Amino acid sequence: EEYSFSLMRRVVVGELDCAIVPAGEVLSGLTAAYLATDREVLVGGLGLLPGSPHLSPVGPRALSGAKLIMPSPRNVRRRWLDTYFDAHNVEIADVLEMDAMLATLQSVVGTDWCAVLPSVLCHADLAGTERKLHPLEGPGISTDYIVVQKADKALTRAADLLVTDLRNEIARVLEDWAEAARAVTPPSGAA
Questions:
Q1: Which of 60, 95, 141, 156 could form a disulfide with 40 if both were Cys (CB 3.0 to 4.6 A apart)?
Q2: Other beta carbons within 10 Å of 125
Q3: What's the whole-model pTM score?
């Protein structure tokens, strides 16, 4: 885990062949290619939103009064979240700043803190045995990811294979999410 600007800078100077970052401004000397679109989910301990079953979608107002672990203000994800909460008049009760998403994921277990994280990161929790997940809807938040590389240099074979494998794995994980959503929300007209 690292800030997007830092990762892109490392690609520019040749420390990395490529980097995967949220779509946005790309540094001079780099090109970008779309990788995938992910959606954000509310994640918390098993006591999160007692009236809402695991994997049931929730609107932004469900976060009003929440104790939320959020990235620091210099993180692009924080700016997206602040804009989302402001646009929907969501009043957060308390904020704990943490930029490491994996540490955030661990920090919500067994506590009354929650977080908004990419669904791909929460894939292991689809069963709901340690954490509850709630896709954000009405409206939700999606994130486009891009692969950045030097504009004047082709990806190495290893980097190209890695990007291909990541693209395929992300597609598989997102299909698992779609299947889980279909199980929670029966088609209209179903009994």
A1: 141
A2: 20
A3: 0.88
Indicate if the pLDDT at residue 76 is higher than 90: no
Q: Each residue of 117-169: pLDDT tens digit?
A: 999 999 999 999 999 999 999 898 998 999 999 999 999 999 999 999 999 99
